Structure formats: C-alpha cells, structure tokens
Protein: Olfactory receptor
Amino acid sequence: MVLKCLSTPFLVGFTEEPVTQGNLFLLFLLTYLVTIVGNLGIIILIRASPHLHSPMYYFLGNLAFVDLCSSTIITPKMLVDLMLEKKSIAYAGCVAQVFLFDVFGMTEYYLLASMAYDRYVAICHPLLYPLVMSPKCCFQLVTGSYLMGLTNGVGQTISMSTLSFCSSSTINLFFCDISPLISLSTFDTTLSHIILTTAASLLGVSSSLVVLLSYVAIIPTILSINSAEGKRKAFSTCTSHLTTVSIFYGSSSFFMYLQPPSSYRSLDKVASIFYAVLIPMLNPFIYSLRNKEVKEALHELGMNKHKRKRMYFIDK
Structure:
C-alpha cells in the first residue's frame, strides 16, 4: 500500500525565502481569484444568454467548470503551504489530489477534443451541423469526457497502491502528482509505469489525434473558401480553441506525461505551474477577449441590467 513506511509526505514547494514566499502568495492568490471570477463568469454568462445556447458554448461552459475544479484542487493547498515552514500533506489528501487532478485533467483533454470535432462539423459540414451536433450528441460527448477522466483518475489511484516510500517522503513539487511519486517509490514501479504510459498513450494521445485530424480537415476547407471575409470568420472561430490546445497540450502532455518519470527539474515545475494554475485563469480570457458573440452577450446583459434599473426608478 502507498506510503507504507511514511504517512506524511512533504512538499518542496518553491522557495524557503520568506519575502519570496509572501510575494508568491499574493501572486497566486490574485491568480486564483481571477480564475474563480473568470470561469464562474463564463458559466453564468452562457446560462443567462440565449445567444450562447449552442454546442460550442455548451462545451465551453463545461471547460470552465473543469478549469475551476482543477485550480481549486491545487491552489488553496499551495497558498496555505506558502505560509508554512513545513509543507506536509496527509496520505488521504495526497491520494485525493492525484485522483481528482487526474480526473479533471483528462476530462479537459476530451473536452478540447470534443470542441475540435464541433468546429470540424461546423466548418466542413455546415448543412449537417444541426443534425450531427444535436443536444443528445453534445451530452454524450461531455459525459464521455467525464467518464474518460474518471477512468484515468481510478487508474492512477490504483497505480499508487503499488508504491512504497521508505527512504524519502519529500515530493519535489508543490502538489501530489503521480509522476514524481513514482520516482520516489522504493518498491517495484513497473505496474505504475505501465499504467502511466497506457493512460498517456490510449487516453491522452487518442484525444490529441481527434484534435489533429479535425484541423487537418478544417484548414484545407477554410483555405478553399473564396471570400476573404468567409476565411477570416472561419479562422476566428478556431483561433481561441487552437490557442488553448497549444498551451494546454504543450505544458501538460510534453513536460509532464510524455517524458520518463524523474526528479522534477525547474523546467518541470514551471510547466506544472502553467497547466495547474495559469491555464485555468487564461482560458476565460482566451475565449472572451476575441470572441464577438461573448462580447455581444456581455453587452446585451449590461443593457438589460440598465433597462431594469431604469424601469425600477420609473416605477418608483
């Protein structure tokens, strides 16, 4: 069973310098608050605006929920540790972090793949779009994404049961993740390696292939559009998604799961901050700042709120 010899592992965190810890605490606290406001804002806006009741925004709302959960699993504990001299984590807390973070991490992979498929159907088969991307299909894609995440979480948690930490309890990271735990194990890690590699290959790579194949079909279709305005509009619907995919896949897949488990270097820790803390904050801005429909929905809600205030004072 995991942690047979040691029940309280320790996290290295970022630094032991008090001033730097205080600055990092303020920085990550601000990041977390922006993450909460941004993702909750996206969810509320999508639910409140009829113009955003479409498959693309249905997926985006679930993506915002997943980002909110992923950040909440990691950041509050990290903020507490920045204020403590000894950054320990209980066995149950370590297991919970591994399970939940792997659940929502893999769910995000498949949500991004579902969004890529949605863009493929919208651009390459626009006449069939209402039929193919029906509410039932969208629900099945989102449900399947959560099920894939759950499968990954259960698999990684099972792999922890084969690990034993008798010589070292220090995790060179700011949260519990399966890869650094494997590198610390004093027991045979063959099964854990197999589960980690299988999850990365079957789950992560398969979702990446959906994204890749979707855009292999999308790009020639966009280039074949005769009007410059049509090309611009088609590209604009994919820009936000491509930006999110590039950042998320680049930081999480390459740095964290598609390399052999080893002691975490500084570059790995930076990548961990990026996909665990910063990406959940960035996604709402990526999808809203350059999105005309989101801006119009915000403007409409603002106008409706102003009208309600005017009617209130008139009634008074």
